[in-house]
Amino acid sequence: MKATKTLLAAAAGLAMLGAGAAHAATEITFWHAMGGGLGETVNAIAKDFNASQSEYKLTPVYKGGYEETMTAGIAAFRANEAPNIIQIFDAGAATIINAKGAVYPVASLLNENGVPFHAEDYIAGVRYFYADSKGDMIGMPFNSSTPVLYYNKDALAKAGVEPPKTWEEFETIAPKLKAAGYIALSQSHTPWIFSENFHSRHNLQMANENNGFDGVATEIKYNNEHMRMHFSKAREWQQAGYFGYYGTKWGDNQKPFIDQEVAMWLGSSGSFGGLKSAAKFDFGTTNLPYWNSITKGEDYTTFIGGAALFAFSGKDKAENEGVAQFFKFLTKPETQFFWHKETGYVPITNAAYTLAKETGYYKDEPDAEVGIQQLNLKSAEWNKGYRLGYYVQIREVMNREYDQIFAGTKSVEDAFAAIEDGSNKLLARFAKTVQ
Amino acid sequence: MKRQQFDHISLPYLLIAPQLAIIMIFFVWPAAQAIYQSFMLEDPFGLASQFVGFDNFREVVSSDHYATSAVFTLVFSALVAFLSMAIALLLAVKADGIIHGQSAYKIMLTWVYAVAPAVAGMIGTFLFDRSIGSLNHLLNATGWPFNPQLDVFDASFTVILVSVWKQVSVNFIYFLAGLQSIPRAVREAALIDCRNGFRRFWTVTLPLLAPTGFFVLVINITYAFFDTFGVIDTMTRGAPGGGTATLVYKVYQDGFLGADLGGSSAQSVILMILVLALTVVQFRVLEKRIHY
Amino acid sequence: MKNVKPLDHLILMLGVLFLLLPIWIAFASSTHRPETLLGEGLQFWFGDYFWETYSAVLLDNSGFTEQVNALLMLENSLVLGLGFSVGKIIISTLAAYAIVYFRFPAGSFFFWIIFSSLLLPLEVRIIPSYKVVSDLGMLNSYTGLILPLIASATATFFFRQFYKSVPEEILEAARIDGAGPFRFFVDILLPLSRTMIAAIFIIMFVVGWNQYLWPILMTTDESYFTVVMGIKQILNDLEGNRIPQYNKALALSILALLPPVLVVVVFQRWFVKGLVESEK
Question: Of A171, A354, A369, C205, whose CA is between 20 and 30 Å from C131?
Answer without folding.
Answer: C205
